[in-house]
Amino acid sequence: MKVFSQIRESAPFDIPITVFYAFKQAEGDADGVASTGWETMLAGLARAGFSVTGTWPIRTERSGRSRDNESNALASSIVLACRPRPEDAGTISAKVFLDFLRDELPDALNKLQQGAIAPVDLAQAAIGPGMAVFSRYAAVIEADGKHMLVRTALKLINQILDEVLSEQEGDFDAETRFCVKWFTQYGWNDADSGTADTLSRAMNTTVEAVERGSVFRAKAGRARLLAFEELSANWNPLTDDRISLWEVVLRLAKALAEVGGQEAARLMALARQRVDLDAAQELAYLLFSLCEKRNLTQDAILFNGLGQSWFDLTSSSLKLAATLPKPVQGQLDLMELGD
C-alpha cells in the first residue's frame, strides 16, 4: 500500500497508470479457494486512493513448465488500468453496489465477448468493470456498518457474472435451453426419462424434438445428452431437420479441435444461414463456465478454444459465405392446389 500511496501523491488526475501483475490462480483458505495476493494488491490500490477502471489478462505464462508439476505456478498476468479517485468520492451501501453491478456488468461482458477474449480469462477480465464500481467510491458499507472487503466484492462480482451468463439463455432456442438446464444438472450422465419430459415441458419443447436435433437420447426409461464423440459425421447445417444453438456450438468446437479452423469456419458460414451466431458465441462462454464448475476439463478446453477463436472463425466464415450454397425453400404448387 505504501508504494501505491506514494504513486498516488504524484499521479495526475487526467493520466491513467497501469499495473502489471502476475498472480497465482488458486490458493486455499478457510473460506475456500481464493487468491490472497490478488486481493491484497487490489485492496492496496483502493486504500491508496486509486480507482480500477479496467483489467485485461495476458497469457504470458507457458503451461507445462517443469516447475508446474510440483507447485502452484503462475497462471496468468494481469494488466490493470487505474486512475486517482477524486478526494470527494462518497460511500455507497452494499445493496447499491449490487444494483450497479447488475446494471453495468452485462454491457461490459458483451464487449469482452465481442473482443474475442478467451472464456478462460473472462472471469479475470470482468473484475475490471466490477472493481471500477467498487473502487470509484471511498467505501462500500455493509449492513452491519463495516467497510466491505475486497474479497467480498470479488465474490459478488463473480456472482453477478454467473447471473449475467445465465440470463443470456433468454437468447437461446427452446431445445438449447433444455440442453443447458440438463447439462447444468447432469452433465453427460443419464437420468430418468420422466425428468426429461418434465423439463422439456418447462422449456416449451418436447423430448422428441430434442432427440430429432441429434443431441439427446431417451431410451428404456433413461435419457442423456450426446457427448462430442457421439455426434454423427458429415453434418450439414443447411439440411439439419432440427438445428439448435446447442448443436451448432458442439459441432463447431468438435470441428475446430479435430479437423481445424478451416472446417470450423466452413460450418460456421453454413450455420450462419440458420441460427444467430451472436447467441451461439454467448453459449460457448456459458458452456465453458459450466464445464469448469463440473470439473470437465477436456470439454472446457474445447469450448475455450472455440471462444478464443471466434473472431478469426467469424472473419473466415464471412469470406466463405459467398461461395457456399444457400438453403432451398419449398415452393407452393398453385396448380396442384387448384386441382
Describe this structure in words.
This protein has 339 residues and is an alpha+beta fold. It folds into two domains: 2-168, no CATH class; 172-321, no CATH class. 53% of the residues lie in helices and 15% in strands. The chain is built from 13 helices and ten strands. It has helices at residues 2-10, 36-47, 94-114, 119-135, 150-167, 174-186, 193-202, 207-212, 245-258, 261-271, 277-293, 297-321, 334-338, and strands at residues 17-24, 27-29, 32-34, 50-58, 74-84, 91-93, 139-141, 191-192, 216-219, 222-225. The strands form four sheets. Strands 1-5-4 form a three-stranded antiparallel sheet. A three-stranded antiparallel sheet has the order 8-10-9. Helix 9 runs antiparallel to helix 10, helix 9 crosses helix 11 (277-293) and helix 10 (261-271) crosses helix 12. The longest helix is centred in the last third of the chain and has 25 residues, at 297-321. The protein starts with a helix and ends with a helix. The relative contact order is 0.09.
